[in-house]
Amino acid sequence: MSGKPDTFRTEWTTFAVCACILAAVLTYENQREYAAIKAREQERLTAVASVSEYMVETQLGKIGATLGNLRDAFPPPALTQRLRDSSAALSTAARLKILATAMTSVRSLDIIDASGAILASNLDEHAGQNAAAQEYFTTPRDRPADDALYVSRPFNSTVGDLTVNITKCLIAPDGSFAGLVTAAVDPEFFRAIMTAVLYAPNSWARLVHGSGTILLWVPERPGLVGSNLAIPGTFFTRHLESGLESALFEGKSYAAQEESLLILRTVQSPSLKLSPPLVLGVGRDTHTVFLYWRHNVRVSIVLFCSVSLAGAAALFSSQRWRRTTRLRSERMGIELQSVRTELESFFSISPNLLVIADLQGVCQKLNPAWEKGMGYAAGELEGQHCVDLFHPDDTQAVFDTLADIAAGKTISDFVARFRHRDGSYRCLEWSAAGRDGLVYAAAHDITERKETERHLHELAYHDRLTGLPNRSLFFDRLSQALSVAKRNQKRLGILFLDLDGFKKVNDEHGHDAGDTVLKTIAGKLVETVRATDTVARMGGDEFVVILSEIEGQDGAELVTRKILSAVTPEIPLSDTLTCSVGASIGISLYPEHGADMDSLLMAADMAMYLSKKKGRNGFAFAGEAEQPETGVRLSEKHVVGVGEIDEQHAELVSLVNRLCSTLQVGDGLVVESLFKVLLAYTEYHFATELRLMLQHDYPNRREHDAEHEQLVRELRHFGLEMGGRDAAFLSDFFTTWLLEHILKQDKALGAFLRGLREPAGTWT
Fold first, then answer.
1. What is the share, in percent, of the chain residues with pLDDT greater than 90?
2. Which residues contact 617 (CB under 8 A, 6 or more apart)?
3. pTM for this model (two decimals)
């Protein structure tokens, strides 16, 4: 009978069990959501760390390959004997400058013998210095290994920031240490790589030397770069002690001083053999990551308390009503209706998109969140077939999911695109279950998350200005194309393209005009080649094209001529302004010019420089014979012995050689400008010699000065006819014009001035 104490106790026990079940469900859902958020964030951090590691390893691999090629080109003991010769050292330095220019991540390339003397460098100020006291020299010297790629401790460079040296040993035939080749790495290059992959404002990345010194922190935080993480108990130390390639940590970061999720990856592939390795870290502030989850927990607590209190009140009232009269029993029905209203409120205030439908997909009921999230008013979709509102490409997957629900399965994390009332499609993540012929489903909008993931991928692998593949994606596609060519025994071509006249456009019309030219050229290149080929921007005005499965040299030449025809027409910069550029293209072919990426790229790069020397808007294949160099060369016999005069002679020779090189390229405006500079500097030099002759009463002053006037007249007359002369004729003229005057007049003047009893520092 209703109203017995035993019945009341049973009802309260049932209520308590239901409340516990509800609390358990809410707790489980919140824990599941917490785990899902954490797992999703770990996946993002892992993906970002993997991309960053790949790009850093790629750059270190290129540097290591370049150092290996240099080491192979100068094996000991021929290295020391060859580079002691000044002409060989100058030639090697010129080659190092070309390599350093092509490698944006490298500041300097040095070749050092066993005593620490720098025999050759792309930086003139390094040549002749001694690095025997530097850590990047002593470590390889004390522990030489032929296949190791040594990474020095970070140190302050000459420009004031931290840098590291990447080094390979030179091993003599007897196995002893014979020197090294080393590259100083520009940390700003890795900053650009790591900045590009950060996916949230409160995420960060760092690059740490194996010794514990922080080399780079992005975004920059004052005081962290240069600090030491090799402290017991830090995430860095625990990662190294674990010996694992990758490790995830959660807790308070020693360096960042914030609660963080942190992925640490050791940059050390079997092919690199870094000594010691670099450690890459990517992290994010956990407070921000779980901010929305904490809000949901608070909402769940409020909802649980509200439902529990309402249920307890209803049960208490029901029991009280049943103790009294039938009237109160009737009033109990009213209270039960109130409970239903509370449950309906729970359905109404949920932030998720809730829907009840039948197993055929016909909508029965929607909660109000649909109007806010998807634009559909209450009742607007009731009675409609909801499957028709899914994206056509997702319709079959929706029917399959309904079939699974009808079979008794519970669905979670099902992603499909649903049409918004404005006609656009939103990406929804669904969870659903079936009961009594109905489907109960909940969804939330993940469109922004999907767009963020797509945008991060786009930033990591495409050039922001032109939309072309960037260096990272280019190397990936080249590796794939090369593998296919080797597997199918097909030819592959690489076109290294550098724009002619692009600097002039930038200088005369500004960088916006230069950006317009780059985007236009990028579009023309994509239109000219096949869909199976790849066009990438390597930086600045340099582009690279991968031609897959071509018919040898003739096929590459045909595509190259089409490209030259496509880039030369005028490019509109505005309604009234146009410009035009050309292109110098270097071509290398697999397998004729190399069997690996580095060899093919270096061959194409050198061919491009050969094309530049041959003239504007042309091309050259790797391996073509270079044209003989022209220009004036000073030797020891031309040294006067007076510092001021010898320095000005060297500057005159530099101006003459620049003029010869520019005339060979054919840029008339630059030739005219350089000639004016040469004429002005010649008059300045002759004025300097006249001042010294007057100051010290040189007896042959009048004869010497008269020859100066004759030389200036000859130079002015030659300038009028220079446009019809080639670079070789120009070189012959200046060799006679300048060097014979030095031997005939300036040597005697130098001997006279050195014989004066003046302090030694006056002339040298």
1. 14
2. 500, 564, 568, 582, 583, 584
3. 0.40
